[in-house]
Amino acid sequence: MDQLLAAYRKAYRPDQNTNIVNGLVISTLFLTSIVLTRSFFEVYLFYVPVLFLLPIFFRHAKYSKELLIVLILMGISSLYGVVTERNTFDNFLKIYLSIVILYSFYYYAVAYNNFDVFPLFVKYVYFARIVTVIGALQMISYLIGFKPGANLNWFFNKWSYVEAGGWLRVNSIIAEPSQLAFVLAPAIFIAIYNLTNKKKYFFNLFTSLLILVITVLTFSTHAYIVLVLCVIIILMRRVSLGKSLVFLSVLTALLVLIYNNVEMVRIRLDDSFMIANDYNKMANSYQLSRLNTSSFTLYNNALVSIKSFESSPLVGSGLGSHSISFDKYSLTNQYYLPFQDFNKQDANSLGLRIMSELGLLGLGIFLYILIKFRVKRTARDEVWIISHSILVMMLAALLREGHYFISGVPLFIFIYIYIKRSETTPVNA
User: Fold this and answer.
1) Fewest CB within a 10 Å sphere: which of 148, 215, 344, 412?
2) Contact, 359 vs 313, CB < 8 A?
3) Cα separation of 422 and 369, whole Å?
């Protein structure tokens, strides 16, 4: 057990009920591959602990005035989108109710711990370790030909088995490889910090290395974005020049190796460079048809979000409205293209979705939180690590993750906010 966890557990010994509650809370981050029903909207398995615990949480704290104000602003602005016919009431209600319930749930989860976020983060680390090990077992099963261990469709009903370039794309118990990289983003940050500084915060060096290996084996561009963001932020703090050069060299060599040997990654990167270089020439069917599905999906949703933003820059078109904006502005309406309307609901990026649905109001709130509550570089290591591991996750979400609440986004936002209070409080006080 590393020194941080030893010191933390010496200072804080949660009772059995708190351990169970925190375990149920963190399980909601990883129970996204089982859907109970799709009738009105998708009801995930993780809704069960949410509905079970909410009545218990109500007794432990008053509701946050700040959260209430944000939810009211989002509600009013979204109803404006309904009134101006850029959205439907049904679309708004589905997303708004989910946001109210889940953001309230995660706020109360933090309040249940007396706003001490360490217990919840420690429990997340525990789950992340288990999910990583399952990912390793999945790859081993694939290599030895044990199909039930590699393909988990027999258990999860919203889970994808994906191969690319003769390799399995690891996704463990998470629906997709890119989503695995996203939910593990804080753990990935910690792993890289440990390896670059020869530390054992939350994970020993073997587990840290295993997390990085599994991240690479997702063969997800989202994963590689997370890796690059982690390295940049860690090196900007206080890693020596020599270590920085060595780590950057290893990372560059690894990315070049992946680019040269994994066709799917190479195609996506080539398409991204093509879009960047020939942006003004992309609006024709020939250029667009040259893109791969993933690149087109992101590019198309970016154009839709820009059009939606231009129609209502201050408050957007309202929560749940991106699918309607998509129907209006999608390139598939103008050209005959070999693509389906992927990510029509979530814009393939939280940044694009917020811009489309909540405009400057939503972007302003999100960026204010990221800037206002980022801890200083002089903070204690464990506080700085937790804060910036979540910062990486939120930056990755802005780029490629379009859900408001899947994978525990609200919980990590609250941890990010309340860890700021721990800057000057010793863990072993």
Assistant:
1) 148
2) yes
3) 16
* Dihedral in degrees, nearest 10, Cα atoms 198, 203, 206, 207: -140
Give the distance, in angstroms, between the CA of residue 58 and the centroid of all CA atoms in the same chain: 27
Contacts of 218 (CB under 8 A, 6+ apart): 169, 170, 171, 177, 178, 180, 181
Q: 140 is written with which tokens?
A: 């081993």
Identify how many contiguous H helices and E strands the chain contains and give both numbers: 20, 4
Check residue 13 and give its pLDDT: 54
List, for residues 325-352, the tens digit of each pLDDT value.
Answer: 888 888 777 766 555 666 677 777 888 8
Using a 10 angstrom Cβ sphere, with 0-12 exposed, 13-18 middle and 19 or more buried, the burial of residue 238 is exposed
Task: Give the end-to-end CA distance of the chain in Å, rounded to a whole number.
Answer: 19
Nearest CA among 423, 404, 377, 410 for reference residue 120: 410
Cβ–Cβ < 8 Å for 295, 331: no
The residue count of the chain comes to 429
Please tell me the pTM assigned to this model: 0.85
Instruction: Judge whether 46 and 38 are in contact, CB under 8 Å.
Output: no
Structural contact between residues 325 and 304, judged by C-beta atoms closer than 8 angstroms: yes
Burial 299-309 (b: 16+ CB within 10 A, else e): bbbbebbebbb
The answer to whether the CB of 19 falls within 8 A of the CB of 127 is: no
Backbone angles phi and psi of 44, in degrees to 5: -85, 160
CB neighbourhood size of 78 (10 A):
28
Widest pairwise Cα distance in the chain: 65
Integer Cα distance of 429 and 167 in angstroms: 49
Q: What is the DSSP string of 11-63?
A: H----HHHHHHHHHHHHHHH--S-EEE-SSS-EETTHHHHHHHHHHHTTT-PP
Our CA angle for 116, 389, 178, nearest 5°, is 120
How far, in Å, CA of 319 to CA of 71, rounded? 11
**CA 105, 111, 116, 122 torsion: positive or negative?**
negative
**What gap in Å lies between CA 378 and CA 198, rounded to an integer?**
19
Write out pLDDT tens, residues 199-210. 888 999 999 999
